[in-house]
Write a structure and sequence with these properties.
With 351 residues, this protein is an alpha/beta fold. It has two domains: 125 residues, Oxidized Rhodanese, domain 1 (3-Layer(aba) Sandwich); 211 residues, Rossmann fold, CATH 3.40.50. It is 53% helix and 11% strand. It has 16 helices and eleven strands. The strands form three sheets. A five-stranded parallel beta sheet has the order 6-7-5-10-11, with helices on both faces. β8 and β9 form a beta hairpin. α3 packs antiparallel against α4 and α14 crosses α15. It is globular, with a radius of gyration of 25 Å. The two termini are 44 Å apart.
Length: 351
């Protein structure tokens, strides 16, 4: 099956079977795919090393490994393979690994399809969409200082039926030096691209898309140039503000996990020494160790986040000076719902 045809019909397959190694699968895979490796990580290295010495011997050894692994999957997944089961099978380039699994499944009697071009073709489709789709969309960019509830406001807009692109949610990172989520590693760049491809593909160009202002990088992953440029050059900005007391409370909630691990918090602050100086960073570390969390977040807001964030916004969003402004009293659900309604009225006054 051709790649373009398959990508348009992914939901018509009962399952998508990725036969690449667990390492390849972990880096990225088609959405919803199951990993049935026909070679383990170690086996692939063994066959590859042997191939450089003796191609025929490598094929013989590899074929035996593939056959044993396929037999094991067929035995272990027997309950999954019901009558009329229709899977899509792929490997790196749509070659021998997926061809072998596809052949076995068809011999059993299933209407299995092999993805032409494999993951490589899928990756090409992802990059093409990420390059082209942003220019078709109308973005509304929520701007504001750290801790003003922009991410929570996006959630309320989604609850009220609006299209939302949650970039921090896809990146599993809040975008700052403290932004890593507890016990949730970030996706690889390729996996982030795939998640973003999936999100963009669902959006309707006829309706606005609400998004939070972000830097080019969110933690360790990077936005596609096309999306980054579209947000900066053509995004319709709305400035969101909140009183400092409410902002501190929101940061205390978002970063509550640090209260049981002040040493980890202090270690992350080391990344600010070149910007804010050793003496100031030591002060913040001491405050965290003493449990003065409201005080340290208040100072971080005033002395680190606000100056840098506003400079960055002013440089990258020339339309910000004319942006409408909305104020949140606090981060309560009722207040966020109220301001979400105001945002919608600004964007769709007739609605």
């Amino acid at each position: 099956m051709s790649s373009s045809e398959a990508f348009a019909r992914l939901d018509q397959f009962h399952h998508i079977i990725d036969v690449r190694t667990p390492l390849e699968f972990a880096e990225d895979h088609l959405p919803g795919a199951l990993n049935w490796p026909v070679l383990s990580n170690e086996e692939r290295v063994t066959v590859g090393t042997l191939y450089r010495q003796d191609p025929l011997e490598a094929r013989k050894v590899g074929a035996a490994m593939v056959a044993r692994n396929i037999a094991r999957h067929l035995d272990e997944q027997r309950g999954l393979m019901q009558k009329h089961w229709r899977p899509l099978v792929y490997c790196w380039r749509g070659g021998q690994r997926s061809g072998s699994m596809n052949w076995f499944l068809n011999q059993i009697g299933f209407k299995s399809k092999q993805l032409v071009g494999g993951y490589k073709a899928f990756r090409g489709e992802v990059r093409k969409t990420l390059d082209e789709q942003p220019s078709r969309l109308r973005f509304v960019v929520l701007c504001g200082r750290t801790g003003t509830g922009k991410t929570r406001l996006l959630r309320h807009l989604a609850q009220q039926g609006e299209q939302v692109l949650d970039l921090e949610g896809l990146a599993l990172h809040r975008g700052s030096v403290l932004g890593a989520l507890p016990d949730q590693p970030q996706p690889s760049q390729k996996a982030f691209d795939t998640a973003l491809w999936q999100a963009l593909s669902r959006l309707d160009p006829q309706h606005p898309v609400f998004v939070e202002s972000e830097s080019r990088k969110i933690g360790s992953v990077q936005l596609p140039d096309s999306l980054h440029q579209q947000l900066r050059d053509r995004g319709h900005c709305i400035w969101v503000s909140m009183e400092d007391t409410g902002r501190v409370q929101l940061l205390l909630e978002d970063y509550a996990h640090f209260q049981s691990q002040p040493a980890a918090f202090g270690a992350l602050l080391e990344g600010l020494v070149s910007l804010r100086g050793r003496e100031r960073v030591r002060r913040w570390q001491a405050m965290a160790t003493a449990g003065q969390w409201a005080e340290v977040f208040g100072e971080l807001m005033r002395d680190h986040y606000d100056p840098g964030y506003e400079r960055s916004l002013t440089n990258h969003f020339p339309q910000l000076a004319q942006a409408p402004r909305l104020a949140l009293m606090d981060a309560s659900a009722s207040e966020l719902a109220r301001v979400a309604c105001d945002v919608r009225t600004l964007v769709n006054p007739a609605g």
